[in-house]
Design brief:
The protein is 36% helix and 18% strand. By secondary structure, the chain is α/β, with parallel strands linked by helices. Helix 2 packs across helix 7.
């Protein structure tokens, strides 16, 4: 009886083990069929989040244009450099005044790259300043100090000049994009900010004698008022969930250290260097050898990353922040780029360009296994509805949810 019992246990175990192998092979086969039928170049990496076991892979070490998956690295770098719950972008106001209600001379406004200033926010700033100093008259100019960023870098490297790109500046109006196909938008953004601000002052009865112009604050003036943005954690969540290019690029441009010994503006080159240092330190990846990133939002087709890089980055964020990291990602239950895209909960970052699509993130499968994944597609031909790369991604994610 004992021998018979042992044989039954062995056969049962063998059958269970064999069925698991067949199931795993079947999972790979079905995903492989999707990949083979997809009319483009695709890369896939699926891992167990906790054990980091590879559950499926295809071209995971090939370089792709990542589109907005680039924002995952902007998120990672910002969390490494700043205290996200304390840091806020300041906008500083300088002027001299000897008479109550009067600004005798110019009013200087120094931007730092705050990406949250909508026309409504600028109106509130104007209202606060007028009330604080009972301003009724400005005898000089409104001078916009946009020198925190290099002014001629109002567009990112590798951005298509004829796309409706967001404009970048130390003084930024949220949501403003290029409206015409031009490549000369120097100072457009700060002047737009200044015009909105000036109009709001005028509505409040402030008489302005001078003009609106670009310039630098006088060194002998003291700051009179500072407006602070929301804290960075809220800005990062908005950037990720809405896939907002303007805020992502502004954050990227402020990654360079404030106390740069060389002085001068926060250039794209310095931002790349800061991002490069962080990625090398925490992920061990080398810029120019393993990957290339030249902006913070993913509009540039110079950017090159692999699915393995994205999975490594998300896994690192999970190890450091645990499930709190999910607060930064879009998900299928809330407003954002993934809302109602799938019938179960997925947290992730989408990516879309004319020749690139991607989805990377985390999900808990039907079998209660946490998965980290990255799907990337380039050079596809989108003719039939079934060729839609987003539907291709959905079919793979649905299969992961049901079978892993």
């Amino acid at each position: 009886m004992k021998l018979k019992y042992k044989i039954i246990i062995f056969l049962s175990s063998f059958l269970i083990f064999t069925s698991l192998l067949i199931g795993a092979a079947g999972a790979g086969t079905d995903i492989r069929e999707e990949i083979n039928q997809f009319p483009g170049f695709s890369g896939v990496l699926i891992k167990d989040l906790n054990t980091q076991e590879v559950l499926f892979s295809h071209s995971e070490d090939k370089l792709f244009t990542p589109a907005s998956l680039t924002k995952i690295f902007t998120l990672l770098a910002a969390l490494e450099i700043f205290d996200e719950q304390q840091y806020a972008y300041p906008t500083s106001f300088y002027f001299s005044s000897t008479t109550p209600g009067e600004i005798n001379g110019d009013l200087y406004i120094v931007g730092s790259g705050d990406p949250t200033q909508s026309p409504d926010v600028i109106r509130k700033i104007a209202d606060t300043l007028v009330q604080k100093y009972d301003i009724r008259h400005i005898s000089g100019d409104i001078v916009l100090d946009n020198s925190k960023f290099l002014p001629q870098e109002f567009l990112g490297r590798g951005w298509m000049w004829d796309d409706k790109n967001p404009l970048i500046g130390a003084l930024t109006v949220t949501g403003y994009k290029v409206k015409e196909k031009q490549n000369s938008y120097l100072n457009t953004m700060p002047l737009l900010w200044g015009n909105i601000f000036s109009q709001e002052l005028s509505k409040k009865g402030v008489k302005i004698e001078g003009n609106i112009r670009i310039g630098k604050v006088q060194e002998d003036l003291q700051v009179k008022y500072i407006n602070y943005s929301d804290t960075l954690d809220k800005i990062l969540a908005y950037m990720m969930k809405k896939s907002d290019n303007q805020s992502a690029e502004n954050i990227f441009r402020t990654l360079a250290p404030e106390d740069n010994p060389e002085g001068g503006s926060a250039t794209i080159a310095r931002s790349i260097a800061s991002l490069e240092e962080i990625i090398d330190t925490v992920l061990g990846l080398k810029w120019g050898k393993d990957y290339i990133l030249v902006d913070g939002c993913g509009l540039s087709e110079y950017n090159l990353m692999t699915p393995a890089h994205l999975v490594k980055a998300i896994s690192y964020l999970y190890r450091k922040y645990d499930f709190k990291i999910l607060d930064y990602f879009a998900n299928t239950k809330e407003k954002g780029t993934l809302k109602e895209r799938l019938p179960f909960q997925v947290w992730g970052k989408t990516g879309t360009l004319s020749s690139a699509s991607a989805l990377a993130g985390l999900l808990e499968t039907k079998n209660k296994k946490w998965i980290v994944f990255c799907l990337m597609e380039n050079n596809f031909i989108f003719i039939e509805e079934e060729d839609d790369p987003k539907k291709f991604e959905n079919r793979i994610i649905e299969y992961i949810y049901e079978n892993f």
